[in-house]
Amino acid sequence: MGFLKPKFQKSAITAKENFRASLGAWFSSEGKDFPWRNTRDPYAILVSEVMLQQTQIATVLGKGYYVRFLEKFPDIRSLANAEDESLLKAWEGLGYYRRARMIRETARAILEIHGGVFPEKEAELLELPGIGHYTAAALRAFAFDRVSGLVDGNVSRVLSRLMDDYRCVDATITMRAQRLRAEKLCDPEHPRRHHYAMMELGQTICRPGIPHCEICPVSGFCKTRTPEKLPVKKPRTKTTEVSEYAIWARDDAGRVLLHHESGNRRNGLWKLPLRTPEQCSPLKHVTNETYAITRYKVRLAIYLSDPERESDMQSGDQWIAAGRLHDMPMAAPFRRVVERLLPDF
Ligand code: SF4
Q1: Whose C-alpha lies nearest to ligand 1, atom 8?
Q2: Is 198 in the pocket of ligand 1 (CB under 6 A)?
Q3: What is the pLDDT of residue 222?
Q4: Phi and psi at residue 14, in whole multiples of 5°?
Q5: What is the DSSP string of 156-186?
Q6: Which residue has the higher pLDDT, 224 or 306?
Q7: Which residues pair with 240 in a beta bridge?
Q8: How confident is the model at residue 2 (pLDDT cuts 50, 70, 90)?
Q9: Mean pLDDT of 93-116
Q10: Which of 153, 180, 206, 290 suits 136 as a labelling partner, its CA being 20 to 30 A distant?
Q11: Tens digits of per-residue pLDDT, 301-338?
């Protein structure tokens, strides 16, 4: 700013202040009321932020995941001590189960390194497992009311449009520039309100595709004339379709054959045992399910088997009493199949 003449410096500062005031006034009257916006507890805010990564607000809130999780693990100590099965059960249906284990790692590190008290400094937050730039900034903004470089997908879109910036928002250098921009634009008098307002502007008005510029509280400060072309992103990876084959088998005692996962992605979760297409081909097909995971669209086909055929069980397979199924953590697509096939579930 040192090269600007005082007159220009003043008008730039005034514009920024007016922008903050317009945004703040809009949010104060129109801002949505979410449970995580009514707390300053960094633990509750961390839980909400981790859940909202890759899961929509409507799911996290509407299906009660956030409230139930906090009832089960009300503080950092209870989460740090959570057993695998109980943790995964509380996360069931949210997907991306690595997030559940990672947030437990974060809780454990805060207990061990900081005696259970969340650090406020960005550098200390970034040293914790599972905390990246976004989560550190969210904690600083929402729990500690600090100016931060908070940029999620919504804020990134708003910033690109406000500045008419055609740089690719997925590039590391642009991400860094956007964080700096967010920090500089933030209202130092009301950081928490400002950051919530930027996110909400992107969620409700400055939407992907064609935004609602006609009702935008900051349209007078916006530089773009082609908002529908912004932000510029890397081309999406193509979705690949794959097939999975699983069996549904019950024994005379009514037990169901399940498989306990040991792979990376869903380690510790239960599912119906997978088999090869050749193993399933003589069996009767009973139902299908589809689900998406990362860049894959999976078509899951279920075949009816029986205890005799499955007597040679594969590693990880176990017969489970039907009454226990409800309490066992299971990935959502398999849960849907079990609910469909077990009438008294
Ligand atoms: S005027 Fe339109 S493009 Fe600009 S910030 Fe508002 S909604 Fe987004």
Answers
A1: 206
A2: no
A3: 97
A4: -60, -45
A5: HHHHHHHTT--SBTTSHHHHHHHHHHHHHHS
A6: 224
A7: 296
A8: very low
A9: 95
A10: 206
A11: 999 998 888 877 788 999 999 999 988 999 899 999 99
DSSP state of 321: -
- Percentage of the chain exceeding pLDDT 70: 95
Tokens of 331: 């990935």
> Average pLDDT in the 285-290 region?
96
Q: Whose CA is nearest to atom 4 of ligand 1?
A: 222
Instruction: Please state the rounded mean pLDDT for residues 185-193.
Output: 97
Q: Is the CB of 213 under 6 A from ligand 1?
A: yes
Q: How many residues does the chain have?
A: 345
Q: What is the average per-residue pLDDT within 19-23?
A: 97
Residue 49 is among the residues annotated as catalytic for this protein: yes
Instruction: Assess whether pLDDT exceeds 80 at residue 283.
Output: yes
Q: How far is the CA of 206 from the centre of ligand 1 (A)?
A: 5
Report the distance separating Cα 5 and Cα 221, nearest Å: 21
Atom 1 (ligand 1): residue with closest C-alpha?
219
**Ligand 1 neighbour 205 (Cβ under 6 A):** yes
Residue 76 confidence (pLDDT) above 80: yes
Looking from the CA of residue 161, the nearest atom of ligand 1 is 3
Answer yes or no: are the C-beta atoms of 180 and 155 closer than 8 Å: no
Residue found under tokens 């009311």 = 145
Check residue 264 and give its pLDDT.
Answer: 67
Please name the residue that has the structure tokens 């950092």. 76
Tokens 């077990």 belong to 342
Euclidean distance between CA atoms 254 and 274, whole angstroms: 20
Mutate to test the pocket of ligand 1, among 205, 215, 223 (most ligand atoms within 8 A of CB): 205
Which DSSP state fits 322?
A: G
Domains of the chain: 11-147+183-221 (1.10.340.30), 240-341 (3.90.79.10)
133-142 and 42-52 helices cross at what angle (nearest 10)?
Answer: 140
SS3 140: helix
Residue 188 phi, psi dihedral angles, 5° rounding: -70, -15
